[in-house]
Amino acid sequence: MKFSSLPRFALLACTGALALTGTLAQAQEPQLNLQRVQLTAGMHRIDAQLALSPQERQIGLMHRKEMPQHEGMLFVFHQPGIQCFWMKNTLLPLTAAFVADDGSIVNLADMKPETTDSHCSDKPVRFVLEMNQGWFAKKSIKAGSKLVGTPFSASH
After folding, report:
1. Which are the contacts of 147, defined by CB distance < 8 A and separation ≥ 6?
2. Consecutive sets of 10 residues in the chain, 156 residues long: mean pLDDT of each?
3. Domains in the chain, start-ordered, CATH in brackets?
4. Which of 57, 107, 127, 132 could be a cystine partner for 99, CB 3.0 to 4.6 Å?
């Protein structure tokens, strides 16, 4: 989940509202119907949901109880920046790949479920791909590896 784009007071207000009401039905629902894009990492195919709007990026993979191994979520930002993610209300252990405009992975970060630790890109990026934790390691994909797909070819 992306948090740095919200002003701190708005983030606190949202958190407080959720805590007071206990449940907001739509806030508890995972995003399952976002637009998708096909990516590849070497010979490995990735079916990625696209988180394009600020709201889609904020919700991210929160409240998902499971995700197929070949699926992930690609967060797309308008401008490169140091992107920081946390795992509040995210139930699955994930790895975030911070990705440069050309599809090169800048760095990877393993993230524990339901934590508020900040995981940031090592340099400004416009893309972050979240996959199930261990997916990149099992496929020997690391910093410097390249992802291929239309988001990266269109960003030059």
Report:
1. 39, 40, 41, 46, 97, 99, 103, 104, 105, 129
2. 45 38 56 96 97 96 96 97 96 98 98 96 98 97 97 69
3. 8-153 (2.60.120.1140)
4. 127
Cα dihedral sign, 47-52-53-54: positive
Per the DSSP assignment, residues forming a β-bridge with 98 are 107, 128
Distance between CA atoms of residues 137 and 116, nearest Å = 23
**Residue 150 burial by Cβ neighbours in a 10 Å radius (0-12, 13-18, 19+):** exposed
**Secondary structure of 20-70 in the HEC alphabet?**
HHCCCHHHHCCCCCCCEEEEEECCEEEEEEEECCHHHHHHCCCCCCCCCCC
Q: Return the H-helix or E-strand segment holding 19.
A: helix 8-21
- pLDDT value of residue 139: 97
Structure tokens at 54: 């600020």
